[in-house]
Amino acid sequence: MQGVGFRPFVHRLALELELAGHVRNDARGVLLEVEGPDGVVARFLERLAAEAPPLAAVERVLTAELAPRGERGFAILASAPGGSPDAPVAPDTATCDACLTELFDPADRRYRYPFVNCTNCGPRFTIVRGVPYDRQLTTMAGFAMCARCQAEYDDPGDRRFHAQPNACPACGPSVRLVDAAGSELARGDEAPRAAARALRAGSILAVKGLGGFHLACRADDEPAVAALRARKRREDRPFALMARDVAAALALAELDDAELALLQARARPIVLARRRAGAEVAAAVAPASPDLGLMLPYSPLHHLLLADTAVPLVMTSGNASDEPIAYTDADALHRLDAIADAFLLHDRPIHTRADDSVARVVAVGGRRRPLLLRRSRGYVPADLALPIAAPVPLLAVGAELKSTFCLAKGARAWVGQHIGDLRNYETLRSFRAGVEHFERLFAVTPAIVAHDLHPDYLSSAYAREREAVELVGVQHHHAHLAACLAEHGETGPAIGAIYDGAGHGTDGTVWGGELLAGDLSGCARVGHLWPVALPGGDRAAREPWRMACAWLVAATGPEPELPPALRDRVEPGLWRAVAGLATSGFAAPQTTSAGRLFDAVAALCGLHARVTYEGQAAIELEARVDPGTRDAYPLPLTEELVLDARETIRAIVADLAAGASTATVAARFHNALATATAGACAVAAGRGGLETVVLSGGVFQNRALLERTAAALERAGLRVLTPERLPPNDGGIAYGQAAVAATRAATSPAPLSSP
Ligand code: ZN
Ligand code: ZN
Ligand code: FE
Fold it and tell me: Which ligand is nearest to the CA of 171?
């Protein structure tokens, strides 16, 4: 990777070993020549990979022997232009300890300078306009370094040697605080101080970060948080919090070692963790959630704000409702003027929008490790390997919600940042721009474009627009299975239990509770959840009571009674009408969706008749699970490996009628689905002579379900693979499509498109 201090490290190592030669970045990585005695050159090569600096990952070292030229000294040469630039740009990295010390040292020339960074930290991906990674191809191009900064930049022994965003108060970017009309309130060091005073007094601020704007306010200020929620029109979705340091985070949430490590990782994701009893957090931060989303400061400006306010802040994405986050000053002033009281801006442009990443810790396979829910800032654009190399460059366009894209060349794949719901016009534009940017950065001109089989996805429409490419359709749940296999370097075959909200099935119905058997090139559907009606189509995903109705029709027959928990929320005439749709199948396609089964159970418990975001009912049902309840409802398996949840629904109705609590029902339901899923996978694995099971799909963001299913599979002697480097939700689809398309192109001449 470029800009991670690798060349100066090579320089120091060569000097130490008294070797002559040079090192330079070229478009494919680092190219170096050393000259000296055989044994010393061998020692140099050994230490090259072993002692590389923290952000450098040495993938492989290729060597060739050259005739000695009698060179003296060791030089770091300028980057070579041209070539095929597949040397990756590093992800944005949180401020390092050395820079942090300078930030708070009154004697340092960068004391309280909000843009302090060095080779080991700072912005990368979000400021890059092109490759090779040099200052003139970043958004720092407009700032000429002062003599002192230039001296640091030129000194191979300095921590800032070739640190492209290097800057200081004399020569670099600066901060301004402006009001909603754009009039300046403060500038320079007075800006963060004034911003902190405004925050302490209860104001809502728009704050420019690394990958876009945040909306910030005090986390403990009920009126401020309630006002932010109202102005943002975000209804129920939890807000993320930023705590000053680990101690402040521990006052808000119970964090174990794995969660603390994740919180402090250089990527600085938002970590979902159990809220501490008595945590001083306004109720409006995360209504109805036992978890909080926490992160630590990752830019110097955040560190200053958190130090000056001395209270945890809400730091939620700078957008209204479902729009993408604002990332230019003009855009923020335009779109957030009705939300923010003031704007903390700066003049270092963000070239690429990148949301905060989100993760939680899960216990799978005997270890507690991260599960990514959204992969963006801090992780992108790190590359992933493909187990079967793509014989030609390819693009995979992903799904539609939680959209990402993926480019691949040879055995390398680059997954783009989380883009969001493509049905929003601005998001779709962002998707197009992102694909173009990545194509330039990694010099990929796709000859194949892989897409979902759903004909109406805007990503599929985009794929059809591309000219002079071969299209490869990949079934949605096969892509989920392939993504998980491929990130673990495996090709299959394996069994996949793929549970999500919806994906286009090869029979034209809506799939989402699938048992698959297959590998990277293809798969067969070997089982599924009992199919029920989706009354009103897409409306059913926003109105879980409709799914309760559909499941009652399936489980108890037409004209089900309106359940007690829904009596004051659903109008009886509407209930009867929807029951009619479910019974007749009119305006009610069939679905095997596991996500919709969760909706039905949540609605029966009275949690939500209607939701404001996809998956909300399932998230709240998981949150209610009583950890002490180990028994389960019946969930029988048919000979054809159909998970017959009708009996589960009947048991839930009876349990609720007998006065069971939501916590008990939620636990027994999770246990039932985990046990039945593991049982079905075991049967499928036995029939196919397989021993590996993949658990993926958005429903497996559910920690209780994931952990319990994985544990049951392991007890049955099966090997379990779960997503780690990519989310189990549709954020992983593009990479899965790429893995499938690469495999098909590498192994079969034609045709490439089939489920
Ligand atoms: Zn640093
Ligand atoms: Zn300077
Ligand atoms: Fe999916």
Answer: 2
* Token pair listed for 745: 């192109």
Structure-derived torsion over alpha carbons of residues 676, 681, 687, 688, reported in degrees to the nearest 10: 170
Ligand nearest to the CA of 299: 1
CATH number 3.90.870.40 given to 175-346: yes
The DSSP-derived string for 123-147 is --GGGB-SSS--GGGBTTTT-PPPH
Q: What is the mean pLDDT of the chain?
A: 93
Q: Report CA(156)–ligand 3 centroid distance (Å).
A: 48
Query: What is the CATH number that goes with domain 6-76?
Result: 3.30.70.100
* Alpha helix segments (H runs only) across 264-405: 300-309, 329-335
d(CA 706, CA 714): 12
What's the CA gap between 122 and 661, in Å, rounded? Answer: 49
Residue 213: strand, helix, or coil: strand
Are 6-76 and 175-346 in the same CATH fold? no
Instruction: Note the pTM of the prediction, 2 decimals.
Output: 0.92
For residue 399, the CA-to-ligand 3 centroid distance in Å is 8
Residue 420, pLDDT score: 86
User: Can you tell me whether residue 638 is helix, strand or coil?
Assistant: coil
Q: Are strands 270-275 and 291-295 parallel, antiparallel or unpaired?
A: antiparallel
Where is 616: in which H helix or E strand? helix 616-624
Rounded to the nearest angstrom, the distance between the alpha carbon of 276 and the centre of ligand 3 is: 32
SS (H, E, C) 470-495: EEEEECHHHHHHHHHHHHCCCCCCEE
In angstroms, what is the span from residue 477 Cα to ligand 3's centroid?
A: 6
Rounded CA-CA distance 210/350 in Å is 7
* Banded pLDDT at 755 (limits 50, 70, 90): very low
Banded pLDDT at 448 (limits 50, 70, 90): very high
- Neighbouring residues of 267: CB distance < 8 A, sequence distance ≥ 6: 91, 93, 94, 357, 377, 378, 379
Q: Distance between alpha carbon 327 and the CA centroid of its chain, in Å?
A: 18
Query: Could you tell me the distance, in angstroms and rounded to a whole number, from the CA of residue 31 to the centre of ligand 1?
Result: 25
CA gyration radius, the chain: 27
Q: 398 φ, ψ to 5°?
A: 80, -155
Query: What percent of the chain has pLDDT above 70?
Result: 97
Which fold does the domain 382-488+727-747 belong to in CATH?
Nucleotidyltransferase; domain 5 (3.30.420)
Ligand 1 center–CA 123 separation, angstroms = 10
The arithmetic mean of pLDDT across residues 512-523, rounded, is: 97
CA end-to-end span of the chain: 37
Topology adopted by domain 528-692+715-721: Nucleotidyltransferase; domain 5 (3.30.420)
Give the whole-angstrom CA distance, residue 164 versus residue 358.
Answer: 27
- CA–CA separation, 140 and 120 (whole Å): 17
* pLDDT digit string, tens, across residues 585-626: 888 899 999 999 999 999 999 998 788 887 889 999 999 999
Please report the pLDDT score of residue 752 as a whole number: 56
